[in-house]
Amino acid sequence: MSEKKENTKDATVIPRPGGRSARIQTAVFRAVEELKQIQETAELTVPVIASRAGVTPSTIYRRWGTLNELLSEVAVRKMRPDAPPADTGDWRNDLAVWLHQFVEEMSSEPGRAMLREVLGGERSNNAGQCSAYTRQQLETILVRADEDAGPVPEIDELLERVIAPIMYRILFTNAPPDRDDAQRLLDRALEFHSR
Questions:
Q1: How far apart are CA 38 and CA 81, in angstroms?
Q2: How many domains does the chain have?
Q3: Does residue 134 register a pLDDT over 60?
Q4: Distance between CA atoms of 112 and 105, rounded to whole angstroms?
Q5: I need a labelling partner for 168 at 20 to 30 A (CA). Which of 48, 100, 115, 143 fits?
Q6: Percentages helix, strand, coil for the chain, rounded to the nearest 5?
């Protein structure tokens, strides 16, 4: 009887969905969030997080590299929108409602802390992911505009004329924008676009 050899070179390894890696990430992220409820972020250390998560510190260093990078990824995860923007039947109103919520959340002390943590990571893709979340929310709103609604601004235009000045004030001034400031920026952007 001849033995049939399997060609293992061509065999494709399909990673299991979830698995050990996902369980570790979930445990570590949960540990960070729980610890932040009972102590200041500045007091967090990799060994304390590892102990709470039931992993070794080397597991955290191997996966995230630094504490700042871990905190950055946790913050990005928390910044992911829970739901699409409200649909009021008027895309301009949807945009205003979304923007007011965005400003309120991002300019709050927890929001500002999350932004600092996102920017504290060494990998630029964390900040890029936050930008992608904002872009997706704006796209969802602008897609709702029908052809009779008049000119609709480009997403990049809204990012540059509305979101960027808001983020600048949140991150670099002691006077974060309020709803009126945000509405003025939005009104100017829509007016500029309709010219």
A1: 25
A2: 2
A3: yes
A4: 9
A5: 143
A6: 70, 0, 30
